[in-house]
Amino acid sequence: MPISHTAAKSLWKDRRIAIIGGGPGGLTLALILQKYDIPATVYEREAFDPNQERGGSLDIHDDSGQFALKEAGLFEQFQALARYEGEDFRLLDQHGNVFMDEVADDDHDGDRPEIDRGTLCDLLLNALDPNRIRYGYKLLQAVPTQNGKHELQFENGQTETVDLVVGADGAFSRVRRLVTEAAAEYAGLTMVELNVEAAAHPDLAAFNARGKLFALGEHKAILAQLNGDGRIKVYASFQADREWLDTCGIPFDQPEEAKRRLLTHFEGWYPMLLNYIRCAGDTLLPRRIYMLPVGLQWNRQAGVTLIGDAAHLMSPFAGEGVNLAMLDAMELALALVNNEELNAAIAAYEAKMYAYSSQSAAMSDSNLKLIFGEQAAVNLKAFFDDHLQMLQTQ
């Protein structure tokens, strides 16, 4: 039976919770625990909030990320900032043939509005007691001690002993090794992130429209999305061996030459699509995409658990990454509120998390194969049509 707010506050006043990682998942967890007067501290490796510089626009789903924002008491503030027009979606092949051109209904709010990652994290941080987050704390290792506690050893020389350590530290989590030997593996996909200033390139901005554009073909993709800061964030993506970035010879620190070489990788594509590369600014960020085994579970360990990418890293093609991290945060926080015994709370949370995250991970893996497979635009359009028909018959 769930315990009262007062009982939860009393139960946790002498226990210590450490959240490793200050991304959206870690901040959401800290904020919901704050709501219930449960003490917890976020330890962020960077010396400042890094979220403005990481990632672009995020679509926040009504059945996951928005649930967490409601629990945190931030939903109305989120609605005021969210871009519902960002749900526009265009699907093309490499020749510029349009397969889908969806425009959000300005008279009705959709269920997956967009918000920039930095804006979302500012929203969370502004509501969080600044004493609940510490910057410049890079975790070296977490060492199990007596009674299920862990000693946290940080690069800055500090140590902390806590009752619960929550790994919210992403793809290459140092906390994950406490519960499983599973490690992030290369998913066979490489991306180069670029940015285009929309105002400086009105023709391309009009072509892109207000939301996302996917251009697919030849086991490659140009993925573009208008962000709230006026940039079009672009991902030139392709299947490649893991070593490709090391052997391709593209000098990513020399932007003009790097863009010229990258254009040859998309030779023959529709000219307007190539403008996403030609018109990009001077920062090119190459990255490999990693994933954990689909449906990963682990043997429960006392005093430790994982949320977000630390628990279920997947490719971005289910659109669930940040949403699952925030949903994890909410489910774990409520499990801690509603259970007197710490490890019972962990068990309750992990059982729920395994169920929904395994479905999303399987979808992500399937979508990755579809988007970079043969006749990708045709098959993705058919996928969306089938999904819409299924929803209409429910």
Structure commentary:
This protein is of the alpha/beta class and 394 residues long. It folds into 2 domains: 5-82 and 113-184 and 292-371, FAD/NAD(P)-binding domain (3-Layer(bba) Sandwich), CATH 3.50.50; 187-290, 2-Layer Sandwich (D-Amino Acid Oxidase, Chain A, domain 2). Helices cover 37% and strands 23% of the residues. The protein has 13 helices and 17 strands. Strands 5-4-13-14-15-12-16 form a 7-stranded mixed beta sheet, with helices on both faces. A hairpin with a 5-residue loop joins strand 8 (139-144) and strand 9. Helix 2 (24-35) packs parallel to helix 5 and helix 11 runs antiparallel to helix 12. The longest helix is centred in the last third of the chain and has 30 residues, at 342-371. It starts with a helix and ends with a helix.
Shape: globular
Number of β-strand runs: 17
Which CATH class of the largest domain?
Answer: Alpha Beta
Q: Which stretches of 5+ consecutive residues score pLDDT under 50?
A: none
Estimate the mean pLDDT confidence: 92
DSSP helix count? 13
Number of individual domains: 2
Q: In whole angstroms, how far apart are the ends? A: 33 Å
Radius of gyration over all CA atoms, rounded: 22 Å
Q: What class do helices, strands and sheet pairing give?
A: alpha/beta
Order of helices and strands: HEHEEHHEEEHEEEEEEHEEEHHHEEHHHH
Read across the widest sheet, the strand sequence of neighbours is: 5-4-13-14-15-12-16
Strand content: 15-25%
Please estimate the helix content: 25-40%
**CATH-derived architecture of the largest domain:** 3-Layer(bba) Sandwich
